[in-house]
Amino acid sequence: MAKKLFIKTYGCQMNVYDSARMADVLAPLGYAPAADVEGADMVVLNTCHIREKAAEKVFSELGRLNAVKRARAETGGRLTIAVAGCVAQAEGEEIRRRAPYVDIVVGPQAYHRLPELVARATRAAGAVLDTDFPPESKFDHLPAATAASGPSAFLTVQEGCDKFCAFCVVPYTRGAEYSRPVAAVLAEARHLVGAGAREITLLGQNVNAYHGAHGKTEWGLARLIAALAEIDGLARIRYTTSHPVDMDEALIAAHARVPALMPYLHLPVQSGSDAVLRRMNRGYTAADYRRVVERLYAARPDLALSSDFIVGHPGEDAAGFAQTCDLVRDVGYAQAYSFKYSPRPGTPAAAWPDQVDDAAKAERLAILQDLVEDGQRRFNAPFAGRIVPVLFDRVGRRPSQLAGRTPHLQAIHVDLDDDGAAARLFGTIAPVAVTAAHVNSLAGRIAAAGSVTDDVANGIDAAHRAPRAAPEAVLR
Ligand code: 5AD
Ligand code: SF4
User: Fold this and answer.
1) Cβ atoms 404, 381 nearer than 8 A
2) Which of 280, 180, 192 is nearest to 233 (CA)?
3) Domain with 412 in it: what CATH number?
């Protein structure tokens, strides 16, 4: 009898990719996808350890799963519970202690061993734990991606991190930096395009540190992107997440030269204060970052930037925070994610004495998020009235509605004449006249073929960037 598998994914896009690969590796064992926990024989929680909140969610979800498991057992049924991802890696023993009913604990580098772990779990009592960093790469032992991932696909090209930012768990949970060989990446990309992908987002914790083997040489990310751009049918390429230090000349030039490389880049800065950046071990100053941004804008004037920020990192005072706000105003982000610093066990910053109190963190976060929202509004507003090419990758709330993404990664909703038009347009790139610009999304209607505003820049120019606001004190 077919068994059913439900995977719940937390955290980053790499986890989304990993979840799909876990489904692939379990399919030969007879596991088909389930829509929810109730319909599943096995549940995998693919977890995130980046901040405390993310990690704690897992334990409360496990409590709920245990109730289902118990109810199942009373009627002679069975629910296998697996915890994967970065919480599994970092807190394997803690999971065993706090949630002894968990059957499998598997770290991100051991997913290719899942079939064996499942077999062992059905025999053994108590959790089967695999949080090794095996000498073999999981990528060499996972089956080729099977499930069609839709018009917009993720492809992990690099994993792990050697940067050791003082606040971050990733170097401990994902391990040392590793780049997949060029041939494997190209083969997977062709497969995805063959299955209907029009857009591929290259993933890696430090994706622009990519240095994949190509025969006896090594390719950087720029070279890989140029080769991917040759694939027939692949219209859009993106990559995330990048580190400012690895933003080399070739990659910046790729933004000018490769039309398929979309004019949007997530380039986390974390802070605008040199003192904080030094404490964070980021390896650049605010001025270094601004220079990288200027070079990027010079290469691709319509580039939209996004970033991550941490407020209240140990050592951040009011003046340091104000420098972060200045940077946000100057760069003119199209989007950004900001977080309160969350001390993570085992990371250097967690042990530092000059922790910032939570009230200050909350106040700074609110100020920063307002600033970011202003920026988003300013970025989106000029799109009203323009015609932009949209890749329709999601169905809307009604059958006659589609959702998609602009080149600048704005979400856009489009009402169509009828359900048939929606079915026809799904998975294609079509010109859309923007009728409304909101803070987090756009709305539009289909426009005539060939009517895209400014087909070189696909939209806007550097004018969206924030006017240089007077540097008034942000915290009064
Ligand atoms: N506390 C708060 N935010 C963090 N991030 C990483 N570690 C922490 C932490 N300990 C944020 C960074 C990173 C993003 C993925 O999560 O901004 O870029
Ligand atoms: Fe974490 Fe820093 Fe590596 Fe990013 S570069 S994954 S923040 S250690």
Assistant:
1) no
2) 192
3) 2.40.50.140
